[in-house]
What does this fold into?
Amino acid sequence: MNKSNFKKEGFRGYNQTAILKIDEDIVQTNANTPCGEYLRRYWHPVALTSEVSETPKEIRILGEELVIFKTSKNNIGLVHKACPHRRASLVYGKTEERGIRCCYHGWLFSTDGEILETPGEDSNSKQATKLRKTFKLGAYPVIEFNGLIFSYLGPMDKIPEFPHYDAFEIPGNITRPYRIEYNCNWIQVLDAIMDPVHTSFLHGQSSGIQFSEGFAEVGEIEFFERGIQYLGCNTRRINDNVWVRVNELILPNFTQAGAAFAADGTKTRYFGRSSFTRWVVPVDDHHCIALAWGNFGERGDPIKYNNKEGCEKIEAGEIMNRTFEEKQKNPGDAEAVEGMGSISTHKGEHLMPTDKGVMIYRRRIRNLVKSLEKGNEPPQPKKIKGGIVKTNGQDTILRVPKRNIDDRKFIKSIGSAIMKMQFDLENMSVKERDTHIINNLSKMEKKGIFDKY
It folds into this structure.
């Protein structure tokens, strides 16, 4: 074939072979890295309660090798994996009433790391006495809540109050703890929550209808930055209805959205809440886990999805245990984010206006990381009335037929009005706020007026 048949300006592979760089400021999370130090200023879920027993379990969080266990008195310990005596692994330790005993030489450690016994040594010797008084096994505080175990892995003089989100207690909802493992960096998984456009393509077109046909509609997008809370509002037209779906990120890694299966844009819904309440936690730079509750009931997803497979579909659009051929034919979130590589080369991205949510939250993390290096502690989730952290991840569907005006501008104005209304009511108690939001949405729909409530 004549080489003139190929247009040289159309083939640029050779010119794009440079090795692209990763965004080290936000993807490196191991101990003693700037972003790792930032993440250690917050509480994170580290395991499911159901995973923890008197048999020690090895876990890795933020690049650190740890062992989690339960004593015979049901106290939970999270400690460094290596015994400080001769570095034997405590995953082979024996749990007792007071703590965990190393299998190698019998040293006993409490859940806060205190050395209780060094049985092979003379207990009255100066060296053993001094060691027990001055040295502790590395350990971290834990809180067990509703099937998840949370830990704070930062300096104890900076420990924050455990945040209590309004999503923890939504009347009528029941929750199911779940864990999903991803073979990639945490930022790749976190990005998806601030990328509402991907739902239209990945979940509505590329893989067929994974949730509902309404997801395939590309809506009007608006982003909101409120302290360390980030919201992506996607407003879609579904026949005579307007569907406002809100994805939510509260830094560093708390995420919510609307329902996965309860809302499809065809039926009225007032302030339905998130299908999951989720944290994306770095295991190391190349792996992360989503630890979460699936939320089911009147304001969550249908009860029939309250099972392992249902939670996986809510999380990623597809079940996790599939063949490569199945994944290639119908990719879900896991395939999309893991396909970027274990650490995406973010420096090679070409971000667009619809990526605004991704850009602004990443930039804020970078700024908070740099600020911490200068000695400024990062902000914690904002508490309002009653010490509760208010959240805004939701679905609202209103019957609003088209008018003789630009419909895309019109539906976007509806989304904006709903978000403003939610923000204006934020200082109320949770019950009062939810009641007012729902009543106001009903009035908006009936009157067809969306700038007053």
User: Anything to note?
Assistant: The longest strand covers residues 229-238.
